[in-house]
Design a protein that fits this description.
binds sulfopyruvate, 431 residues, 18% strand, single chain, alpha/beta, binds magnesium ion
Length: 431
């Protein structure tokens, strides 16, 4: 009797899966590796059913003898420990993003004489409808709101990219890439005050009112399912902040980050070059408490952003504030710096973690940009925000196209740097 191994992630079963399981079971004793929630969330979308539920379903399918945990889309760990004679998969992974995973499976099997058997993959047409329904469910406020907390439980460090309209929301939602032998994607969106203001042709001085910020959020929500973190600037007046919290929570936003400044807010990256006033620990703590009091669900996070390093108030001030803001109810601490090296952020993280191993830490590595997500994870930072990169890359591209048309007095040359018309027409599907 041969040992057969198959990996499954899906929480939407269709007859193609059942057929493949029957084919695999006909080859020997079948073990199914069920992907963990983290692995599914990383490569596809957050699963509708949790790991234990998916295991239970799979273990009750005829032909399945064993069910084991598979920690990542990479089979290597399970193959080397279970040494199955045969791995079964649909032939759909010969092309597309799973090619690399397939190549590694073949390579691992060859180390001990295992074999890959591929069956024609049958795609159930109704699956697309079901997947679409799953996306609709994931976009519901009550489902989306809690995603950030769920992801924080699943992954040591999550990565967030700025979005400032529907189109950039789609980019954050859908972009995937290969990093080494892993497929990666962003975990959520940052609605930056800098980018939201810039996209509207306005300075980043808390000028764009909440109604307008909500419109930006709504555009992003219309086309995506991933969790959203709002850059809430100072949170406004103490009396106004509870209203912001209630509105965001109702919309399905997952978190708001507010910074401990008062008066006219200027962008942090100006540092001391612009006049900025830090709020007292007492007044900012009162704002956090008011926000927490206004909150209805346990899902929504209020994260305190500390500007002591930006405003050169010293490490101890930053640490004292972090402690006070957590005591006031903050669900996370964002520590910001405009230094070109990460030393002061590293020092803060290390000292903060000596007394607080739990509270999520957030960083925005715009200037200290050489640090990788793996290094942040090793330093127990939970959220890495790439705060302005889509607008910063789009603006020079658009400006140089505008200049090129002016210089040439026609648009032929600009075509070389533009997406083909055929592609832009079908970029956004009609359904
Ligand atoms: C933003 O993106 O608007 C931020 C982060 O607040 S920073 O610009 O670095 O201050
Ligand atoms: Mg901002």
């Amino acid at each position: 009797m041969k040992n057969v191994y198959m990996c499954m992630s899906t929480d939407i079963l269709h007859n193609g899966h059942i057929k493949m399981i029957a084919q695999a079971a006909a080859l020997g004793e079948l073990t199914i590796g069920v992907l963990t929630d983290e692995a599914v969330a990383k490569y596809k979308r957050y699963p509708l059913l949790c790991f234990d539920e998916r295991c239970q379903i799979v273990s009750n399918i005829k032909g399945v003898v064993n069910v084991v945990r598979q920690e990542s889309v990479d089979y290597e760990e399970n193959l080397l420990s279970l040494k199955p004679d045969i791995v079964v998969h649909g032939d759909d992974w010969r092309e597309g993003p799973q090619q690399g995973i397939r190549a590694k499976v073949i390579q691992t099997l060859s180390t001990y004489g295992g074999e890959l058997v591929e069956f024609p993959y049958t795609r159930d047409v109704s699956l697309d409808t079901l997947e679409e329904n799953a996306r609709h469910i994931a976009a519901m406020p009550e489902v989306r709101r809690g995603r950030l907390k769920q992801l924080l439980r699943l992954k040591p460090t999550i990565s967030i990219l700025e979005a400032h309209n529907g189109l950039t929301g789609l980019i954050v939602e859908k972009t995937t890439a290969q990093r080494g032998d892993r497929l990666v994607q962003f975990d959520g969106m940052w609605v930056s005050s800098l980018c939201d203001s810039t996209a509207k042709g306005k300075p980043d001085i808390e000028l764009i009112d909440n109604t307008s910020r909500f419109q930006t959020i709504s555009q992003i929500m219309e086309v995506s399912t991933k969790p959203i973190i709002l850059d809430g600037d100072t949170g406004g007046l103490l009396e106004h902040f509870p209203f912001l919290v209630k509105s965001l929570e109702r919309m399905g936003v997952s978190a708001v980050i507010i910074e401990d400044k008062e008066g006219l807010k200027r962008n942090s990256l100006f540092g001391t070059a612009a006049k900025q006033t830090q709020a007292s620990i007492e007044s900012f703590s009162a704002k956090i408490r008011a926000g927490c009091h206004a909150r209805t669900t346990a899902d929504f996070m209020i994260i305190a952003r500390i500007e002591s390093l930006i405003l050169e108030q010293g490490m101890q001030d930053a640490l004292d504030r972090a402690r006070a803001f957590v005591d006031a109810g903050a669900n996370g601490i964002m520590i910001h710096s405009r230094k070109k090296t990460p030393d002061e952020i590293f020092e803060f993280c290390e000292k903060f973690r000596l007394t607080d191993p739990q509270t999520p830490l957030v960083v925005v590595p715009t200037t200290f940009n050489m640090v990788t997500e793996e290094e942040w994870a090793a330093r127990k930072v939970n959220i890495v925000i790439y705060a302005n990169h889509l607008i910063r890359s789009a603006f020079p591209a658009m400006q140089s196209t505008a200049r090129l048309i002016l210089e040439k007095g026609r648009c032929m040359e600009a075509d070389d740097v533009c997406m083909p018309i055929k592609q832009i027409l079908t970029l956004i599907p009609e359904e």
